[in-house]
TrEMBL record:
Residues 4-58 form the HTH lacI-type domain. Pfam families: LacI, Peripla_BP_1. It comes from the Bacteria. Keywords: DNA-binding, Transcription, Transcription regulation. This is LacI family transcriptional regulator. GO terms for molecular function: DNA-binding transcription factor activity; transcription cis-regulatory region binding. SMART domains: HTH_LACI.
Amino acid sequence: MGNINIIKLAEELNLSKSTVSRAFRGGSDINPQTREKILARAKELNFLPNHHASNLRNQKSKTIAVIVPEIANNFFSKAINGIEKVAKDKSYHVLIYLTDDDFQKEVAFVTNLSNGRVDGIIMSVSGEDQDHSYLQVLKRKKIPLVFFDRTYEDVETARVTTNDYQSSFEATEHLIKSGCKKVAYLVVNKNLSIGKTRMQGYIDALKKNNIPFDDHLVIDCSNELEKNKVILRNLFETLKPDGVFASVERLAIASYYVCHAMNISIPDDVKVIGFSSLEISPLLNPSLSTITQPAYKMGERAAELLFEILEKHEEEKEFITRNIVLDSELIQRQSSSLEPVAIR
């Protein structure tokens, strides 16, 4: 047939060009048997369409970027799964960028992506106490941005978060009702909007239950396990809390490591609860009480919101600044129990 292209393939199969194009894009609006027939003939002819060239003609990259602080965290891996599910249904590709909580990396990624490489960005931010003017380039170039989980309060854009204040309040009050009088709050970055919100829930729960707030019990931790072990060992040796509220998953796990090393019994000597999407939380010894965010749903809703914006007319896009708040779930397990726990 000579040089094959979509037009020639459509003529040979007696189909329209748009039908053949939909078959290659994986769209749901085409009969499966027709798609199979098209792809089979294309394979025989060793033909692959040039999607990149087609996207350039349409001035769309058919790609979105996801910028996250890390991927090892169970929360972010589940959120990315939710994003990718929606993107796949829209026949979009997903590029994932890890900032490692480095603000300069975040700036570099956004600057690079603003050249039209992607049609939109979903981001969980790295830090709060910085100049966020670099994000204005996205607005100028009409590249929509959706925040999820960790956000910048001073940036007007669409976002998907959870009820962090209420969840933190309930978690702290749960420890108090379980007998704790001296609850330590473990945090990595108090300057993040999410850190501020969770800490305020902790403070207000203490106040409601007539327990004075002690700034010494707010423990600044790290992203590195070995550093956290040193910090937490010092906490248990000097301040001797009877409750630990970990604002992020890794700090709950670090607490387990240190308590085990120091022969501190959970929950008999200290009760522990933390934000976590760890699927094996029920299998830890003792099982870990958690505030579990709907990570997959958050990713899914963030992606749906981004595509809602992308499908709007240009003049309407900048007016979508919706804030979607989903509920987390407090799951009480052995680590915060009133009853003694037999160590297996």
